[in-house]
Every structure is written in C-alpha cells, then in structure tokens.
Please model this.
Amino acid sequence: MYYFIEPMREEDIPAVQEIERQSQMAPWSALTYRREIRNRQSCRYVVARADTQLPDGTPPATDYPLLLRLLQRIGLVAPASTSTAPIVGYGGIWLNETSGHITTIAVAPAHRRRGVGELILNALIDGAYELNAQYLSLEVRVSNLTAQRLYLKYGFRPVGQRANYYVDNHEDALVMWTDPITTTSYKERLRELRRQLHERLRQQVDQVVVGSPSNGPTVG
Model:
C-alpha cells in the first residue's frame, strides 16, 4: 500500500468527516473546514491518500518541500491523476502567534499503525516552517498513549493539562509543546526521524510487493 500527502481540498471534506466519525472525534462542520482551508495566511491542512499502485508521472509542485524530498525517494508523492485515491487520514495546523498549533490528526482505523499518522505529522511540521512558526504545540487525550509516544519522539513534552477538554466524554487533554524548531539540533533530529520513517515506509512497500501475486500488489 502506497500513501500520499496532498493539500486538503474543499471536495475532500465529506471523506474527512467520515474519518472523524470513525475516530469518535468531536465533529467539525463543513463550514469550519472550508474556512480553515481557505485561510492560507495562517493554516495548512492535508490529507493522506492510499493506493495499491505506484504512481506514474512527475510529482506536482507541493506546499511541503522537505516532505517532498523524503517521499520522492520511494515514489510516495501522488501526481494529480491519483487525487481520486481514497482518503485515509488528515491533519491540520494553524499559526498561533509563534506556535504552529496542531489542531487535528486522524487516521482511518484500517490504516493505523502503518506510519500514516507520522507521515501527516511531518507534513504539518513542514507547514509550520512555511508559516514561520518557532514552536509546535498541541492537545492530546490523556488516555491516548500511542499518540503521546509519537509526539514525544518528535520533541513534544508535556507542559500541563486542560480539564474536561473533550466534549464527548469530558476527558482531560495533555498540553504538549516543543522547544524551538528552528535550531540546528531540532532540524538534525527531524532529519534522522524522517530517515527512519522513509525506511519504515519503504520496507512496508517491499513486503507487500514481495508477498503479492504477479498481477500486482495486494491491498494492505
């Protein structure tokens, strides 16, 4: 299975809302998504798509140049012709003064634990750089230890909690921030994490291809 990152478009909103429902998240209205997508001065929203075929053609221009260089190595940037591939995840970030605040990341249940969430996070980090953010911040459910481990890996650290933050079950949110993302040390850390992600995704593709019949890769 190949995963691709693209900017979120308004026509993607129904698919994004379906993943939102599958993830039992407090729903956003279509109007909210449209407003966020159109606000290019302070927002970046992306979707992850999945396909069983390696894309042909030249990758298009992208808003995520650092991620583009990572994905080009293994063909994980979708040409325009693959925009009809199913959406399996999405994420968003907006600039709050000096912080690139990650507003949402979600992955469809069938595609979790395959690096898709990490791929989306990397796209959002590139978005933070484009918005000239100095830090990254987010809230995460105190019970979501899987997401917390991912964020810790990318330099986030707990700085507090927000009581009764989530409206569905009144669960507390853990507030997490990074140190400055503009430092050489953070960029070196990010480079190594992206090398590891690239290797993980490449191995997953190799496993599918090796284990597939001659008429093409299997659906993961």
Remarks:
- The chain has six helices and seven strands.
- The longest helix spans residues 184-210.
- The first strand starts at residue 2 and ends at 7.
- The chain has one domain: 2-210.
